User: Fold these one by one.
Assistant:
Number 1:
Amino acid sequence: MLHGWASPATVVTTCTAMPILAATAVVLRIYARLFCTKNAGWDDYFTMASMLCSMATTITIIEMVQWGLGKHVKQLTKHEAFMQQRAFFCMIIVYNMSLFFTKMAILMQYKRLFPQKGFKIAVNIAMVIVIIYAFWRVFAAIFVCWPVAAFWDHSIKHVHCQNKFANAMASCALNMATDLLIAILPLAILHKLQLPSRQRYALMAVFALAG
């Protein structure tokens, strides 16, 4: 185990507890929308999809722990490295799908909350950007190596792999850019609300942080 890293037990406990709390919140939300207010919408369905992908991400992380996550690579057997990388490959895909569904849920909720035509057009444009980014990210994650299995199976010969670090950095930059876009979208409308300045800015901060 590398010095300063969380123990496997800590990782598993955290990865189990957090999704349980999130799932509880999602279940309560869906129950309220379906049975209390009876006005469930696309934002709720995207939230459920994100939750399922988040749970899949948790499962893959726990599997990585079982195969030596936290150990130095030199301490892993070939089989452990093989299995850990395969789980990591799956984790990248479901994690990015979870991010996509989360962003779409927020954007669909914007459309529910703010009926202004101009704002809905802006949200639709943002949705197109998010969809294009998500397709690119998942496609790039799957085909970062060819053959695909070369990502985790280093015994395969005649392999072509992209620069994984550059791929990851590009993904992080675009992910943050779409997050920022989603965060600032409603600020202009919120700034025009007829509320005391303190309440208006507090509301803008809440939306920006949630985005």
Note: Residues 191 and 208 are 12 Å apart (CA to CA).
Number 2:
Amino acid sequence: MVAPPEPTFSTGQTAQDIVQLRDLWDLSSAFEEHAASGWVPPAVLDPNYIAPVNLRRVDAATGAAFLVISTILVVWKIVATQRTRLSSVLFLEDWLLLAALVGQAAYVVVIWIANGYQIGWHVYDVRYHSVLKLYKFTGIWNIIIIWVYSTSRASLLVSIRRMYSPIKTKIKPFIDLLVAAKLVYLLVCVFALVFYTPRHPGVTFDLVASMRHEGDLLELSIRFMAAQPAFDTLLLICPFPLLWKLKHLPERRRALILWMCGLWATTMLAGPNSMFAYCESLLQMGLQQAENSIGIYFSTKGYQKIAP
């Protein structure tokens, strides 16, 4: 007679996982409430319980598609602007774009690797080993996202600065200041996320020490990402005092500036919602991709006739 298989929870979770997670997340109050109500993990009641669908694959596929689109546009931009390379600023602009592409490629790779550690929708779908790994990968891909965002925005800032080159305006040093602020912001975020003190042995990145007190897994990174629209608000309003001067710019350069202001506004409106609802982050990713794509297109067409 064949012995029945040893019972496990939905994703292979064992009693040891539950004990370790309780110690990591301070789940004693939740356990007491469930015990009082007679609640038990879903797999105990339903042996055919199906583990949650891994939505990280959607992120990976979307990120890969955006990577291909961005690579094509960046290569086209570099090739199309070869004849107008009269300023070293253009090289900075392109190198920042290439840095963003490298980060986007790294993001796709990390997401695919992390697919093996999907934890599920409920605490009883979680395996302790997966939590440790996901803490690490969450820290890595949040750093990468901030890297891509900061470098791509800095590149677009440099591009807009060059758009203003035919006219004399104090907006240029202001944009220089914003570019420097973006890069400083990037360094601060990287150091804060990398050297954040772990709250549990073996966790390389523990982004939320307050997890022990029912904190949000993405609390710290959300705070950093919420600071980014502060810079973008300045970018959004900076052309308005110069509207009367924009008529002196070539048509395509004027179109670039106005397009970018509109897209920044749309991205900022989508941003706060996506920070608190993970699935909607695809909307913000799409808006930022459109923003970068249109910016690259107009900057390329704008430089073909008038060199900076």
Note: The chain has one domain: 56-303.
Number 3:
Amino acid sequence: MTDQPHATEPARSFLFLEASSRGEGNTVQLARLAAGASLPAGAEQRWLRLDDHPLPPYRDLRHADAEQPEPAGHLRTLLDATLAATDLVFVAPLYWYTLPTSAKLYLDHWTGWLKAPGVDFRARMNGRTLWGVTVLADGPEKAEPMIGTLRLTADYMGMRWGGVLLGNGSRPGDVLRDERALIEAKSFFAG
């Protein structure tokens, strides 16, 4: 018998995309609890607040005679952070049964990145993991449209679907009384 070296899994890198219009609201509080309790050992974390990286309106150039422009400014920052992560986490409260505007606009720009020269976006996203953390003031079934958007995005991109951590609350701090969410947060990213 010969000793074979054990292949080590590369360190994971989590990009937390905060899409709340409130800083440190319920959704961010729940995501930070989950990250602190359940990220794999050695995992890197990067937190980006999408409102701090405002994006221009998305222009669909797929069928125009124009080439997709090279991402620049905040688009470049978000593209580079996205490609550097093994795991993307949408930290997004439920707004009108779906993602907040900043998160939806970020996803809209993925369409442009799919066609941007030299980016090879879809192939590079393949095999990564997409997660969601959300807090809502209603029953969990009201989050289904948002969950569907994220799950279908993962599927389309060939990404693994990690799931969504749901919390309940409206006023800041309410989620800290949601015992079910707090228990699930302890192991959410371990799965």
Note: Residues 58 and 109 are 6 Å apart (CA to CA).
